[in-house]
Amino acid sequence: MQKKYFLLNQMIKQYVKCQEPIGSESLKISLEGKISSATIRNYFKILGQEGVIVQTHISSGRIPTDLALRNYWRELLSPANLMPHINTARLHALCNDFRLTCVIKPIDPQKLLRVLEVEQSTLVLVFERDCVAIPFTPSMARFTQELIGVQSDDIQKIASDVCAKSLSQALKALDSAADVYFFGLSFLCSLLEDCSQTALKVLQGEMFGLLDDVVFFPQSSQHIIIAHHATFQDKQAKMLCIGRLNQDYEGFYEALQDVS
Fold first, then answer.
1. CA distances from 145 to 114, 161, 172 (A)
2. What is the CA angle 112-152-81, rounded to 5?
3. Which of 68, 87, 107, 239 could join 64 via S-S bond, C-beta 3.0 to 4.6 A?
């Protein structure tokens, strides 16, 4: 059983690099002959019956199914451990080489300085650089006064948790005004065709508020979104890496973090 999944992982690893069906002989060569072609073919048959690899043509090699690719990336990638230092020119080049889209948003939270009541109709939350206005209620006035000194991103999480809708929406608008940087944007077209609502949330910056250090698979899609943190322009930032399931994300991140 262990050998079966070892062969599956090795086959996927080879497939995402070459983008070609993998035959038993080529997999044997990549494993330096440690497992015979006949053994590999037997395991290929079992894996095919389990629905994790398919043969596109009777005389061709095998390719992994979307299910197999999702499981592979879910197990291999650890977004919480990814913190690349972004070089703009290098990221542009790597997005083109690996046919991926990357979106970066610097994290620039602001501390809430004070809360002003305007004629008992409006609350104005004054942050370090911006302010937002929400409808006045006595309970909201008390609630926001208790948040003075808290960072805007933390207030956003608290507002979402307690269903403070007007405050949450106001802070989302404040957050969406921040700069967002796109790399390899042309490759996002396939996600637009495959899952338009998700692609629009990416373009509008909404996806940053929905994903945090996670591997996400849009429903009924052949795409993956990897959300993690990064250092960009000497600031902490959030980063989304987006592409088809069959792209080489392991190779991309190795190249991205190679500073030699």
1. 7, 17, 19
2. 140
3. 68
Return the amino acid letter for 207. Answer: M
DSSP 8-state code for residue 129: S
Angle at 86 between CA 213 and CA 153, to 5 degrees: 45
- Residues 80 and 70: their CA atoms lie apart, in Å, by 18
Beta strands in 142-246 (DSSP E): 181-183, 214-216, 223-232, 235-244
Cβ 149 vs Cβ 111: under 8 Å: yes
Query: Tens digits of per-residue pLDDT, 29-88?
Result: 988 878 899 999 999 999 999 999 998 776 678 999 999 999 999 999 999 999 999 999
Instruction: List the structure tokens of 74.
Output: 């879910």
How many H-runs (helices) and E-runs (strands) does the chain carry? 12, 11
pTM exceeding the 0.85 threshold for the entire prediction: no
Cα of first residue to Cα of last residue in the chain, in angstroms, is 39
CA torsion 27-29-32-34 (nearest 10°) is: 50
DSSP one-letter code for 51: T
DSSP letter (8 states) at residue 79: G
Annotate 84-107 with b (16+ C-beta within 10 A) or e (fewer): bebeeebbeebbeebbbbbbbbbb
The three-state secondary structure class of 46 is helix
Tell me the backbone φ, ψ of residue 149, rounded to 5 degrees. 95, -10
Is 251 within 8 Å of 197 (Cβ atoms)? no
3-class secondary-structure state, position 133: strand
